[in-house]
Amino acid sequence: MAVESDTVKLGPNGKPIRPFVMPATLTGKLKVWRLLIYRRLVQFLTLLLFFGTAHWGWTLFNEPVLMGNLSSSTLLGFIPLADPYAVLQIFLTKHVMESEVVLGAGIVLLAYALLGGRVWCSWVCPINMVTDLSSWLRRRLPISDVFRVNRNTRLIILALSLLISAIMGVAAFEWISPISMFHRELIFGLGMGWTAILGIFLFDLFILRHGWCGHLCPLGAFYGLVGAVAPIRVRFDVPTCTHCGECAKVCPEPQVLNLKKATEVGMIASGDCTNCGRCITVCPEDTLSFGLRTQNKTDVELPLNLKIPS
C-alpha cells in the first residue's frame, strides 16, 4: 500500500505520487493533446473523403476516392469496404449478399482486429466527437448520473439485435442506428440524424456519463469482442506506476484499467479499451504507451490499490 512520508505520498513502488499537471507552454499542451488532435484529424478526414467524393467528385487515379457510407463503401473504385456488424445482421436475415460486400466486411474486420478493435470507436466513429463534448462539459458542470447501467448491457443489445435480425428478416440495428443516420445526413443531408445525435448528447450530458458509447452501443460491443485479440495494446510499465489514478480520471472505459491484470501481462488486455490514448498523455510517470501485445508476465508483483470509477 502507499504510505505517507511527512507530506509526500508514496506509491506501491516507493516513488512519490505525482498528479498530472497541464503544462504551461503551448508546446507542452500540444504534446498532451497530440493523440486527441490525431483522432480528430482521422475523424474529420474520413468524413471529408466521403463528402468530397459525393459532392465535389474527388478522384485519385481517375477513380472516386471514397464512395458510399460507413455501412458500405468503395475505396478508389475497386476496394470494397463494409461494416462487418451490419453484414452479420444481413447474413442472419438470410438475404443473399454480393461477394464484394462479404469481402469488404472481411477487409474491415481484419483491419480493426489488427489495429485494436474498438479503435473504431475513438478514431473513426463521428459520434465520438459528440460524446466527447458531452463528457468535457460534464467535467466542468455539477452533473451527476441519474441512474447506473451495467456496461455489459451493450452486449445484451448486441445479442438482441442479431436475434431480432434473424427472426424479423431485417438488419435490426441498421434501421435505427444513430451512427448510420448521422453519417448519411452529414454526407447526403437527409434523415433524422441530427435528432438522434442531439438525443445522445443530452443523454450523455444529463442522464449517464459515457451513456451511449460506454453502456448501450452494440457496435462498440461488437468491436470490443474483436479488440480482445488485437495485437496493438496500451503497454503497462509496472515498476514506474505509482497508482496515482490519473489514467482512470480520463478513461471513457475505466473498468479496463485493471492494474492487477495489467501487472500480470504487461498491458491493458481488455477488448473494451478504445486505444484512444487519453491515459498515455496524462500519466506523470510515462507508465503507459502504445505497443504490441505480449503474454510475458512481469517479474514484479504490485498490490492493486487504485479505485476505478464506474
What does this structure look like?
- This protein has 310 residues and is mostly helical.
- It folds into two domains: 4-30 and 231-292, Alpha-Beta Plaits (2-Layer Sandwich), CATH 3.30.70; 36-225, no CATH class.
- Helix content is 50%, strand content 10%.
- It has helices at residues 26-56, 84-92, 99-115, 119-123, 127-138, 153-168, 172-176, 178-188, 193-207, 211-216, 218-227, 246-250, 259-265, 278-282, and strands at residues 4-5, 8-9, 59-60, 63-64, 66-68, 72-75, 79-82, 232-236, 267-268, 288-292.
- Strands 5-6-7 form a three-stranded antiparallel β-sheet. A three-stranded antiparallel β-sheet has the order 9-8-10.
- A hairpin with a 2-residue loop joins strand 1 (4-5) and strand 2 (8-9).
- Helix 1 (26-56) crosses helix 8.
- The longest helix has 31 residues, at 26-56.
- The model is unreliable at 1-5 and 297-310 (pLDDT under 50).
